[in-house]
TrEMBL record, chain A:
Protein name: Response regulator transcription factor
Modified residues annotated as 4-aspartylphosphate in this record: D52
Keywords on record: DNA-binding, Phosphoprotein, Transcription, Transcription regulation
InterPro entries xref list: CheY-like_superfamily (IPR011006), NreC/VraR/RcsB-like_REC (IPR058245), Sig_transdc_resp-reg_C-effctor (IPR016032), Sig_transdc_resp-reg_receiver (IPR001789), Tscrpt_reg_LuxR_C (IPR000792), WalR-like (IPR039420)
Signal peptide: none
Domain annotation HTH luxR-type: ranges: 144-209
PROSITE patterns the UniProt entry points to: HTH_LUXR_1 (PS00622), HTH_LUXR_2 (PS50043), RESPONSE_REGULATORY (PS50110)
Domain Response regulatory: from-to ranges: 2-122
Automatic annotation (TrEMBL), chain B:
CDD domains assigned: HATPase_UhpB-NarQ-NarX-like (cd16917)
SMART domains: HATPase_c (SM00387)
Pfam families xrefs: HATPase_c, HisKA_3
Domain Histidine kinase/HSP90-like ATPase: 296-384
Protein name (record): histidine kinase
ATP-binding as UniProt keyword: yes
Keywords: ATP-binding, Kinase, Membrane, Nucleotide-binding, Phosphoprotein, Transferase, Transmembrane, Transmembrane helix, Two-component regulatory system
Catalysed transformations (reactions): ATP + protein L-histidine = ADP + protein N-phospho-L-histidine
């Protein structure tokens, strides 16, 4: 796939480019700040833009704001936001739109090369990918603790993976159970939490995350 | 007079007495300024004139302290002060005195009229007012008004004299205290700001250096594990090894930047030598202290030196840097000079943080860095 990288650290840009090229992807641009990122996306329309939250000049959340702008101006471009820290506020900002082709991961995850590449593919295909750490924080801080307590430990595991953006088959693989078992758990979770029965997969992820965020959506 | 001061109306009586006492003293001061001061020019008379000046100043101070509540711990004041104060005290005091005298006469006259005099009706006829009153009452009223006006005048004059004393004798103890409190408040919040700034810097150091290298290292290892070709994976592991050494170097240098332990263990001299050794540019250290300083002073001086050296190398392109640490009876001083192209900004992040640190120790940081250079950054701290 065609990718654009935006990170102010040359070291990471280089490393990430190599990693993606090793895997047979094409890095069409690697930039160091938000302005250059927007220009590059406008010119190249990549499949996915990988964006660091913190970039010059302010080193605050320039990358995140650029990511939001990409999502509103070029809905077809997938965005993967990388961050040194997990901030549920950033997650909430990203979740304010739809979850199609969206990812938010801790930067360290790039070292789990297989997972990282799979995440990029899911984002390119319009899926949603959220860091387990974000999900863990949302689960810990959610105001909807009561319905969560009605979940069995297994259903809890399933919910955690669904919130990270895994499809049923991937959940089954990760939990070493059959697909039909997962489907049963998913139905139980959706019922117990009163989530919308939406066939669109990324919308289901979004609904779960918003539920955990305490959003009404 | 001491009796008067104990009265409940002392807040108005005290300055009044002070003002009145100021009249003869002021006259003496004026006399001194006009007649004796020129004698200071004659060597033979100088000693006597000096003594008279000291005595008069002491009397003025005593008067101000006793009656005006002004204590000037400073040693300021001279013939100029005596002349100015004399003029103010004599003129103002004279007016007050006259007002009091006039008021007293009116009061006495009014009393006399009321007790022994035949009542003499007085017709008052102003526009809108038409009253028949008594000359005795009128006298009492006029007397009271005159006394009140004198008292008010005395208060004003007292305030003016205090002002003059503030200006010419130096600030009063209370003022000094207020100034000190304001200064402490400012340096305290400055110190907190400096702490926060330093934390921000440390976070940036960790984020930009250590964490990036850590991620890069993890990425190399991840690629190595993911690589199908064993020779490629071996190469990646070798690269990861190099990266891990760099990460450790970075970590060590960040830790050093946060706080050099050598400062505690071996003191400022060793720490400054460390700066010189680590710098790529020649740094000469002249360290002229015999004993070690308190730890907070050593730390402040160390960070001043390091920031100045960093700036000189990084921004000014210096080729030669000199650090001098010296002390006299009251202050210890560090001066870092370089032959770079100058233009250092004292309000910039690093230097302003240092300035706050130095101010919190009652010191001063000065930055002299004209465009084109050379630059001297100096800090002075009070000591023992």
């Amino acid at each position: 796939m065609r990718l654009i990288l935006a990170d102010d650290s040359v070291l990471l840009r280089e490393g990430l480019s190599r990693l993606l090229q090793d895997a047979g992807h094409e890095v069409v641009a690697a930039v160091g700040d938000a302005g250059a990122l927007l220009e590059a996306v406008a010119a190249e329309r990549p499949d996915v833009a990988v964006v660091d939250v913190r970039m010059p000049p302010g080193h605050r959340d320039e990358g995140l704001r650029a990511a939001l702008e990409i999502r509103s101006r070029w809905p077809g471009v997938g965005v993967l936001v990388l961050s040194q820290y997990v901030e549920t506020t950033y997650a909430a900002a990203l979740l304010s739109g739809d979850g199609d082709g969206l990812g938010y991961l801790l930067k360290d995850r790039v070292s789990e090369v297989g997972d990282f590449l799979a995440s990029l593919e899911r984002i390119r295909d319009g899926g949603t990918v959220f860091d387990p750490e974000v999900v863990r924080k949302l689960l810990a801080s959610t105001t909807r603790a009561d319905p969560l307590r009605r979940l069995t430990p297994r259903e809890h595991d399933v919910l955690r993976l669904l919130a990270q953006g895994y499809a049923n088959a991937a959940v089954a693989e990760r939990l070493h159970v059959s697909l039909s078992t997962v489907e049963k758990h998913v139905n139980a979770v959706v019922d117990k939490l009163d989530l919308p029965r939406d066939p669109a997969y990324s919308r289901r992820v979004l609904a779960i995350l918003r539920y955990l965020e305490g959003f009404t959506g | 007079m001491p009796k008067l001061s104990r009265m409940s109306v002392s807040w108005v009586v005290r300055p009044l007495v002070g003002v009145l006492a100021g009249v003869p003293l002021g006259a003496l001061g004026l006399l001194f300024a006009v007649a004796v001061w020129p004698a200071l020019l004659v060597p033979a008379a100088r000693a006597g004139a000096d003594r008279a000046l000291t005595r008069l100043l002491a009397l003025e101070r005593a008067r101000l302290a006793r009656w005006m509540g002004h204590t000037a711990p400073g040693r300021g004041g001279g013939p100029g002060f005596l002349a100015a104060m004399g003029l103010l005290a004599v003129l103002g005091g004279y007016l007050c005195l006259n007002g009091l005298l006039l008021g007293g006469l009116f009061l006495l006259g009014g009393l006399w009229e009321l007790t022994w005099g035949g009542p003499e009706p007085v017709h008052l006829s102003w526009p809108g007012v038409n009253v028949v009153t008594h000359s005795g009452v009128l006298g009492l009223l006029a007397g009271a008004a005159a006394v009140a006006a004198s008292a008010g005048g005395a208060l004003l004059l007292g305030a003016a004299q205090r002002r003059l004393a503030d200006r010419m004798l130096g600030p009063s103890g209370e003022q000094l205290m207020r100034r000190r409190i304001a200064q402490l408040t400012a340096t305290r919040s400055g110190m907190l700001q400096a702490v926060d700034d330093e934390r921000r810097r440390i976070e940036r150091d960790l984020h930009d250096g250590v964490q990036q290298r850590g991620v890069a290292l993890a990425m190399l290892l991840g690629r190595a594990r993911h690589a199908a070709d064993p020779s490629l994976s071996g190469e990646l592991v070798a690269m990861a090894y190099v990266e891990s050494r760099r990460l450790l170097d970075e970590l060590r240098s960040v830790a050093w930047r946060i706080y050099p332990v050598v400062l505690d263990e071996l003191g400022l001299r060793a720490a400054l030598t460390g700066i010189a050794e680590q710098s790529g540019t020649p740094v000469t250290v002249h360290y002229r202290l015999e004993r070690r300083l308190p730890s907070e002073a050593e730390t402040a001086l160390y960070f001043v030196a390091r920031e100045a050296v960093t700036n000189a190398v990084k921004h000014a392109g210096a080729h030669d840097i000199l650090i001098v640490v010296s002390r006299d009876e009251h202050t210890v001083r560090i001066a870092v000079s370089d032959d770079g192209r100058g233009g250092a900004d004292p309000a910039g992040g690093g230097l302003s943080g240092l300035s706050r640190r130095v101010l919190a120790l009652d010191g001063v940081l000065t930055v002299d860095s004209p465009p084109g250079g050379p630059t001297t950054v100096a800090a002075e701290l009070p000591c023992g």
